[in-house]
Design a protein that fits this description.
By secondary structure, the protein is mainly β. Helix content is about 0%, strand content about 45%. Strands 2, 4, 5, 6, 9, 10 and 11 form a seven-stranded mixed β-sheet that branches. A four-stranded antiparallel β-sheet has the order 1-3-8-7, with no helix packed on it.
C-alpha cells in the first residue's frame, strides 16, 4: 500500500507562484514514476506533469510547459510541482499519483495510487 499526501495549495494572485508537495510512503519510492494531474469543476481530470523514478525524464502538458517544474527528492520520498506565472485557468484541485511499474506516463489510468488532492485557486 502506498499513501500520498499533497500540500501547498492555496489562493494566489494571477502571475503568482506556488509549490506543491506530495509526501509518499513506501521504501522503494525511487522506483515509482510520479505524476501530477488536476481537475477543475465540471471538467475531466487532466495531466499536468510527470517524472521518472530517478528524475531523469520529465513530461509536461503544453498548457504548463515553461511555467511549471516537476522535481523529486528520493531521500525525502517527496515529489514537487513548482508553479510560476499562474493563470486563472490553472485553478483546480491538484492530485499527485504514483506508478509502481513502468516509466512516467501522461494517462491517469497508468497510475496505481492517488493522493486526496490540494486546491489551487488563482484569482484577483
Amino acid at each position: 500500500q502506498v499513501q500520498l499526501v499533497e500540500s501547498g495549495g492555496g489562493l494566489v494572485l494571477p502571475g503568482g507562484s506556488l509549490r506543491l508537495s506530495c509526501a509518499t510512503s513506501g521504501r522503494t519510492f525511487s522506483t515509482f514514476a510520479m505524476g501530477w494531474f488536476r481537475q477543475a469543476p465540471g471538467k475531466e481530470r487532466e495531466f499536468v506533469a510527470a517524472i521518472s523514478g530517478l528524475g531523469v525524464n520529465t513530461y509536461y502538458a503544453d498548457s504548463v510547459k515553461g511555467r511549471f517544474t516537476i522535481s523529486r527528492d528520493n531521500a525525502k520520498n517527496t515529489v514537487y510541482l513548482e508553479m510560476n506565472s499562474l493563470k486563472p485557468e490553472d485553478t483546480a484541485t491538484y492530485y499527485c499519483a504514483a506508478r509502481l511499474r513502468g516509466g512516467a506516463a501522461t494517462m491517469s489510468l497508468s497510475y496505481d495510487y492517488w493522493g486526496q488532492g490540494t486546491q489551487v485557486t488563482v484569482s484577483s
